[in-house]
Amino acid sequence: MIYLLDTNVCIGYLNGRAVGVLQRLQTLHPEDLGVCSVTKAELFYGARRSRNPEQTLAKAVNLAVG
Hints:
With 66 residues, this protein is mainly alpha-helical. It is 64% helix and 9% strand. Helix 3 runs antiparallel to helix 4 (53-65).
């Protein structure tokens, strides 16, 4: 089964604040996870507007690419 992650789940994962999300994602294989183009765009937009755009954008790219 493939899980399509939404923006809120991705942000919780990237920030490390959603412990339940982290634990669940660690039980899955990377090929069972997906991020749609709209979510990618929202992550990139938010990263560019963050306090530390370079670091946040690098995290978003790593999640979106793979």
